[in-house]
Amino acid sequence: MTTPSPAERPTDSAIADPLVDRFDRVHRSLRISVTDRCNLRCFYCMPEIGAEFAPRATLLTFEEIRRIADVLASRCGIRDVRLTGGEPLVRKDLPRLVEMLASIDALDDLSLTTNGILLEQFAEPLRRAGLKRLNISIDTLDEVNFQKVSRRSGINQVIRGIDAAIATGFETIKLNTTAVKGVTESEIISLVQFAIERNVQIRFIEFMPLDTDRCWRTENVLSGETIGAMIERAFGPLVPVPPPVASQPATDFRLPGGQSIGLIQSVTKPFCDACDRIRLTADGAIRNCLFSQQEFSIRELLRRGLRDDELVDQFRRAVAAKAAGHGIDDGDFSPPERPMYSIGG
Ligand code: SAM
Ligand code: SF4
């Protein structure tokens, strides 16, 4: 199993004033968390009980979110928006936000990451509203394991959600499995088989130190290398596929039957040097990295009449402060104060 070399970056000549950091990384991708609430309690993300949520009045409104996306797309060359959370589908009226974002001409792509629990009901309305691509998280096919991981029930609901999304016909649907040692090994082959049967890509994501319970340890990381070797033993050699864009976090491979799979090796093979992402939390803070210790709240500024050029300046300030890498391997690494569900994964 070898790693393909990334494709060339597209040119930036058409963008008037892109968001470029100290390491020459051009930011084109905006991740927007629409809520920190969730209908599951995955152990690698949330606490089982006592999760703390942002007061509702602090959540950015749909109008505020649309304005930010529009300004960044038209002035700074942000080209894709991904909605996430928490669980984005628990935010009331989400298809209305999707419709508002889909009307921004300068955006090329609009996607969403979901745990799939409410997808059976929302697949059609989301597609109709203009959502192009979906990532659906699925860590197990077994209800007992599902309850161990998510501390809620519902694997059949997730599978029905995946099938409803496939039937609806999005441009791309990808499955995401967060892989944890001692939890995921026994599921890898059946999950790959599940994806093959549905002709969708499955990607395995390494466990990162972003859990509220602080249970992450290096020893709990099930590496992409190990997962790849397990898949090769069951299905045959994995052939590397060059990424369509350098900033893609997954390394893609093809199985002998042609099926595509991805490994997101955020811990063992960080892809920070090609990162083009900037994040907005549900309560209106700009974060330049999942692991950043610093954030730039714009909510109150927005509500006090921040002009468009000042809004861009806030993003520029955040991008300028971006570190070279996440530093998980550094001796003095400490995880960010906000856990995954509160940042927006
Ligand atoms: N609730 C939605 C979901 O689960 O798909 C969207 C938000 S969730 C934070 C986004 C993705 O982050 C999910 O695929 C989830 O499995 C992954 N994730 C959460 N905590 C993680 C961690 N500590 N390490 C790696 N991935 C994690
Ligand atoms: Fe909820 Fe997604 Fe976090 Fe699981 S990973 S607790 S589904 S936000």
Automatic annotation (TrEMBL):
Any coiled-coil regions, as ranges: none
Superkingdom, taxonomy of origin: Bacteria
Chain positions recorded as [4Fe-4S] cluster 2 binding sites: 272, 275, 289
Binding-site positions, GTP: 31, 82, 113, 174, 277-279
Leading EC class: lyase
Biological process according to GO: Mo-molybdopterin cofactor biosynthetic process
GO MF term set: 4 iron, 4 sulfur cluster binding; cyclic pyranopterin monophosphate synthase activity; GTP 3',8'-cyclase activity; GTP binding; metal ion binding; S-adenosyl-L-methionine binding
Binding note for cofactor: Binds 2 [4Fe-4S] clusters. Binds 1 [4Fe-4S] cluster coordinated with 3 cysteines and an exchangeable S-adenosyl-L-methionine and 1 [4Fe-4S] cluster coordinated with 3 cysteines and the GTP-derived substrate.
Biological role stated in the UniProt entry: Catalyzes the cyclization of GTP to (8S)-3',8-cyclo-7,8-dihydroguanosine 5'-triphosphate.
Full protein name: GTP 3',8-cyclase
Organism expressing this protein natively: Stieleria neptunia
